[in-house]
Amino acid sequence: MGFGDLKSAAGLRVLNDFLADKSYIEGYVPSQADIAVFEAIAAPPPADLYHALRWYNHIKSYEKQKASLPGVKKALAKYGPADVEDTTGAATDSKNDDDIDLFGSDDEEESEEAKKLREERLAQYESKKSKKPAVVAKSSILLDVKPWDDETDMAKLEECVRSIQADGLVWGSSKLVPVGYGIKKLQIQCVVEDDKVGTDMLEERITAFEDYVQSMDVAAFNKI
Amino acid sequence: GPEELALLERLLGLPKGNKYGVQGERKVPVLQTNNGPGLTGLMTIAAHLVKQAKKDQLLGSTAEEKAVVQQWLEYRVTRVDGGSSKEDTRIILKDLNVHLEDKVYLAGNIFTLADILMYYGLHHVMVELTVQEKEKYLNVSRWFNHIQHYPGVRQHLSNVVFIKNRLYTNAH
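Structure tokens for the assembled complex are given below, as produced in the milestone run.
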């Protein structure tokens, strides 16, 4: 679980989506779960992420009582949607930089001991930095779904496409694009986890709705 | 009417004993008092009960909160109870959805009598909504689900189900 990197715009979007139908991170009362996530966010979410902003302002109103809210503060990876990872941790690694004296002491002449200690610490820092948490590979795909003719019920066609559910698949916005002769194609966005969902599988499941769908093409494919 | 006021009494932790009646064609509730004609009207009686229970914060703390609470109590009586056509309902849900976009409760950050009476007043509407409608009025659904889980509010009323994984994400 987690929201991705809460210090990034993408992470805030995950948080926003998560909070669309919830007042709190967990349950129905403010708790340490809300405080944990609140403290991981650098600033109020932007106005277009209005669910996250609503939650942020609400939790802010509990600032004075935050110590007495129920529950126990856990790691960010314990909260949020099940199929997302927490990568906000990458930021906290850099906090340890302050503890490491990279440029040596003020004293120009370093003793052998101090030098050895410094080099040891540098090696530690380097190895910690290289162990960054894994990021889930995702892609944003734009699909063109074509109907048989101009009489096909496009609303029903869209409903069929959106009814396709899979682990690692999230449907996005869509629009109808005229292609001539009164026919419209459905252009629909989705975000997939690369190792779970592929375009072959999407094509198979979308074209299975034979009554509505004539064909499906990938209009655009971008790595996120 | 009186049934709703009984729910409210229980939620407020008031002892039983108040006697209610109804008046006129529109069945306006009346709280019978020892002296005089009694208190008339849902909003009036509800506010009186809140004060009886010494839970005045449910009417709002700041002047602005108090005004917003009154606004929604009035809305409940004039629009929710007053109109009941499909179009009226659609407008109410749309109004609420816009108002709740940036608020957790009707008055902002605090739970008030407005949330309670709007919940009771809209329960019969929410029970009938389709999955798509619940997603369309996403903010109303979020608020309603929150209020029905607030301790003491729902009592014997049915729990309205809101599915966790939305079918139409980003459908705006």
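Residues 91-98 of chain A have pLDDT under 50 and may be disordered. The domain at 138-223 of chain A is CATH 3.30.70.60 (Alpha-Beta Plaits). Further analysis is deferred to the final report.
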